[in-house]
Amino acid sequence: MKQHYPVFLIAAALALCSASCASTSFSYPGAHTIPEDVIGVSPDRTGLSPQYVEKLDEFGVTWIRSAADWRNIESQEGVWDFSGWDQYISRAEAAGKKIVMLLCYDVPWLYKDNKEHRNFTEREIGYFLKYVEQMVTRYRGRIGAYEIWNEPNGWFWYGSNRRFFALSAAAGKKIKELDPDAVVLAGSLFRVTPRFVRGMFKAGAFDNVDGISLHPYSSDAIHTVRQIDKLRKIMDEFNCAKPIWITEVGYATGGLYFSQCNLENYPEYVVKTLSGLAVRKLEHIVWYELMDEYDAGQQRNNWWAGQYFGLMYPNGDLKNGGEAFKLCSRYLPGAEYRPELPLRNNVQRTVTSLYFRKNNEHTLLLWDNAASAAAAPKTVYVSAPGTPALWRHNITGGGAEETGNEAVFRLTNEPVFLTWTTEEGFSGGAPVLSGRAPGR
Questions:
Q1: How far apart are CA 210 and CA 190, in angstroms?
Q2: Which residues constitute the domain of residue 264?
Q3: DSSP state letter for 415
Q4: pLDDT at residue 327, as a whole number
Q5: Could you tell me if 59 and 175 lie in one domain?
Q6: What is the edge-to-edge ordering of all strands in the sheet holding 336-337?
Q7: Do the beta carbons of residue 7 and residue 256 sit within 8 Å?
Q8: Are strands 32-33 and 39-41 parallel, antiparallel or unpaired?
Q9: Which of 119, 223, 310, 407 has the fewest C-beta atoms under 10 angstroms from its C-beta?
Q10: Domain ends where: 286, 305, 335?
Q11: What is the rounded distance in angstroms from the CA atom of residue 410 to the CA atom of residue 368?
């Protein structure tokens, strides 16, 4: 859920992203199985109408995230309108989608000036908890997870940190009192700001929740995955092993925003981001968002980034990057990530290799982190025992081409997306990645 940002804030955020050194790699220690339902998306502006539900299925989406904006539900004190959400939840259930319901924002009628303040005292927290009670009681057992607020350390909370900590702690406690089986998420962090996160822990705002939610928006994929590593270090300080949910991540392909890329490079960003996050033992990854606001070439202006975050256009056409998302949602969920594979032989450290296996299906992603226009592509050799052929997928246009089970690739920034199959129960030799031709 993006809004307009002053240019000086965008510049500051860009400086923040580029300040850290390139020490984090895309790989992550420890083999583990990626959840089958790891992939989600924000389907804003769709209303879950049938044609867009079909697109969610094509993108392999299980989870959807939507805001239950308080002002739209209780427009006047004590006057509740659940009709929109009743319909939305029924459509989600019929489509087999799980909802992350965002409990958020303010109501103008609470204040003499009839404007939202988003800076709750104990008085306003009491009213907010009544709204929480209405939502949780009405939809008990039908919501996949409740998320408290949106980016309070960024743009959507106007008060002090201390007041927000009190709100979040009270809301988490209230939800669990009403429905002990509910999954509750707190944080909804816009990137990782250490002082804010530590404050949440010290105030007990994470005590009654099941997971910590994060929006790791960054200038590129490597900076995005670093946000998870940064959050985990703070969690370790408090002996917290709760799951991390990514409830927003993405890139604008136009406008002014620090988390953006040009449309040509969007497939690269999608593959690197989804795979780099998937290997980090996250509970779920919700992409922001499904659809641009306008069809290609119909955008109203060139600076508002919020209209450019989608994977497709309203007319149903895929954006550049849509096929890359489909590939990741097809091959990563349910697969076991094996960081020790492929076996690497004389491969430069700048080459990333991420290997996944699901039964007899194998996936290998390769790219060169140090590639540039001035540098020659790095040549690597892949050997995959137990299969007659590798398939190299086109992350931009779709489709795949077949190679032998030993193949050579010239690596650039753009990921090479390889898959192959072996016979059921195959336990033969491991895949090998070499910087030299076999036999040399």
A1: 19
A2: 23-335
A3: P
A4: 98
A5: yes
A6: 32-33, 336-337, 351-358, 361-368, 416-421, 389-393, 400-404
A7: yes
A8: unpaired
A9: 119
A10: 335
A11: 9
Residue 331 lies in a domain: yes
> 228 φ, ψ to 5°?
-65, -45
CB 269 within 8 A of CB 217: no
pLDDT, tens only, 157-179: 999 999 999 999 999 999 999 99
pLDDT at 11: 42
Determine the pLDDT at residue 1. Answer: 58
Residue length of the chain = 440
CATH code for position 154: 3.20.20.80
Query: Are residues 310 and 429 both part of a single domain?
Result: no
Structure tokens at 347: 């491969």
pTM for this entry: 0.94
CA distance 220 to 283: 22
Q: What is the average per-residue pLDDT within 20-30?
A: 71
Report whether 26 contacts 352 (CB < 8 A). Answer: yes
My answer on whether 98 and 120 are in the same domain is yes
Q: Count structural domains, the chain.
A: 2
pLDDT over threshold 50, residue 19: no
**What per-residue string of b and e applies to 211-227 under the rule 16 or more CB within 10 Å gives b?**
bbbbbbbbbbbbbbbbb
Looking at residue 16, its pLDDT comes to 44
